[in-house]
Amino acid sequence: MESKEIEKFSEKNLSYVVYKDLKERGLVVKVVDYGLRLYDRQISVKGPASAIILIKKFENIIDFSDIIAELGKGLERRVQISIVDSENSAVYYVAKFVSWPQTKLKDDAKSSVDDVNMKELIDKGYQINSGLKFGTHYRVYNYESKHAPWLIQKIDDSMSWLDVTRMVRVGHGVNKTIVLAYKGYWISFDWIKP
């Protein structure tokens, strides 16, 4: 087999791994060119899918182009990401665009970060502080929050899907939403059990 054929077979194999996993969980799944369509329990397959599932290999470098394209369609269905490891075990996340409404800083609060990438949030009144203690770049507060509801990680071109898995795991463990800052987009990832 040539390298392109091997790559195509590998991608199809990942699709099959996720397809099989979801079917074994009792879900209805249909194969489409760009991923899988998932129908939640008690949802008719005659209507629109509950989710589109985009499949990623854990060791691959992050590419959000298909995620951004799906989210950009603005459809009612979820955009789920399935990350598959070397043992063909899959974890699932829901990806969403994050919009930041206007807020204001508390009287005694200030942002400790001076990062051009965070200017949009600072201008909208969010308090941005170091996220080091959570293993991310930043933690973000709005006017109402006593604790930071969001952790932000800037994504660079060398990060893998395994890095995303680590970040979401930490965020889930401390009850915070992980937001990935990627080329001008804000994308949240939340763990989901299918």
CATH domain topology of the largest domain: Trna Endonuclease, Chain: A, domain 1
Beta-strand content? 25-35%
What's the count of strands? 10
Helix content: 10-25%
End-to-end distance, in Å?
A: 35 Å
The total of helices stands at 4
Return the CATH class of the largest domain: Alpha Beta
Low-confidence region ranges? none
- Please state the overall shape, judged from the principal axes of the Cα atoms: elongated
Task: Profile the largest sheet.
Answer: 10 strands, mixed
Number of domains: 2
User: What is the topology, as strand order, of the major beta sheet?
Assistant: 1-2-3-4-5-10-9-8-7-6
Report the mean per-residue pLDDT as an integer.
89
Order of helices and strands: HEEEHEEHEEEHEE
Structural class: alpha+beta
| Estimated radius of gyration | 18 Å
Name given to the CATH architecture of the largest domain: 3-Layer(aba) Sandwich
